[in-house]
Specification:
353 residues, alpha/beta, Quinone Oxidoreductase, Chain A, domain 1, Rossmann fold, 2 domains, 7-stranded mixed sheet, 6-stranded parallel sheet, 30% helix, globular, Alcohol dehydrogenase catalytic domain-containing protein, oxidoreductase activity
Length: 353
């Protein structure tokens, strides 16, 4: 089969490799579509992981083979593949910190080499632990593979929305109106809150309004805090979701978030970035700083419900589609987006035959 193998920083090689062998409790899925995620891009561009690996984890496909001990799954079923499932009994899981669980972090789907997601290949192997514990979700007939590939990123965004306790009637500032920021706007609106967005690209500001933001501004606008105050009866927003790794965005969040409000870090910052902060700002204004990483096992069913019942419009997020052989060009496009670049989807060649 064909796969995009990570051979080093900024080195992707489109190679012929063996289709993974499956054990009795494993499932083989033919990848139909896989979303290109910011975390994939970071893994390709920076020296975070030893090569060789095959990344890609926002995967939807068709079951191509099932191990002899596998129950309830058959060849031909259309499935969303979840690349991590927690153990459910360690101290982290018992505190509902599922993404900190060692099993969650270390057991993952693979197309070969060190297991790393494996979606950037024609076939991906799903380990027994993931098969047994809800890591495959059947796709309803009225849902496309493209739409289904959004279940995993929806879960990640939903976890942040829940962690920030966003509630009906609140106002939420979302910094960055790329694919994640736009999904946040849709989810915030779905849960009954008002969304305000910022971005540097005018087309993304316009897009934010088109998917449900009540207001959207250029992030460089010197009057942004005053405009936010005007929209919130002089209070400021209840929650700010940082969907871009920008020190300036954090500084704006402090200026725009009300006393007693929350600021949630969703985008991953470069490790060398350090943000100076006067602790008295947090103390006197009672601002909560929160981080949200990856998905939550508890929100898996709700994430699927939101996508499969079209409670948000994931189709509106897709801007580009690339064949797997052009993954490097897709990464380049994501790193240097045109005004019209939003979510990029990748298609293995076998899927298009």
């Amino acid at each position: 089969m064909k796969a995009q193998v990570f051979r080093g920083v900024k080195q992707l090689k489109y190679e012929e490799i063996p289709v993974p062998d499956i054990a009795d409790d494993e499932v083989l899925v033919q990848v139909q579509v896989v979303g290109l995620c910011q975390s994939d891009i970071k893994k390709i561009l920076y020296p975070l992981y030893e090569p060789p690996r095959i990344f890609g984890h926002e995967t939807a496909g068709t079951i191509a083979a099932v191990g002899s001990a596998v129950k309830n799954w058959q060849v031909g079923q259309r499935v969303v593949v979840l690349h991590h499932i927690p153990c459910m009994h360690c101290a982290y899981c018992l505190n509902e910190n599922y993404s900190m669980c060692d099993t969650y972090k270390n057991i993952t789907t693979t197309a070969g080499f060190t297991p790393s997601g494996g979606g950037f290949a024609e076939y991906v192997k799903v380990p027994g632990h993931i098969v047994r514990h809800g890591g495959l979700i059947e796709i309803p007939q009225h849902i496309t593979f493209e739409q289904a590939s959004f279940v995993e990123p929806t879960n990640c965004c939903l976890k942040a929305v829940k962690k920030a306790q966003i509630a009906p009637g609140q106002t939420v500032l979302i910094t960055g109106a790329g694919p994640i920021g736009l999904m946040f706007i849709m989810l915030v609106k779905y849960f009954g809150a008002r969304a305000i967005a910022t971005d540097l690209i005018q087309s993304r500001i316009d897009k934010a309004l088109s998917v449900g933001a009540e207001a959207a501004f250029d992030a460089r606008d010197a009057d942004l805090p005053a405009k936010i105050q005007q929209l919130t009866n002089g209070m400021g927003v209840d929650v700010t979701l940082l969907a871009v790794p920008s020190e300036k965005a954090f500084s704006q969040a402090l200026d725009c978030t009300r006393k007693g409000g929350k600021i949630l870090f969703f985008a991953e910052f470069p490790d060398e970035v350090e943000i100076p902060i006067n602790p008295n700002v947090l103390y006197r204004r009672e601002i909560d700083l929160i981080g949200s990483y990856s998905s939550s096992y508890r929100l898996q069913a709700l994430s699927a419900d939101i996508v499969f019942n079209k409670r948000i419009d994931v189709d509106a997020l897709v801007s580009d589609r690339y064949p797997l052989k052009d993954l490097a060009a897709a990464v380049e496009k994501a790193v240097s987006p045109t005004p019209e670049t939003f979510k990029i989807l990748i298609y293995p060649e076998a899927a298009s035959h």
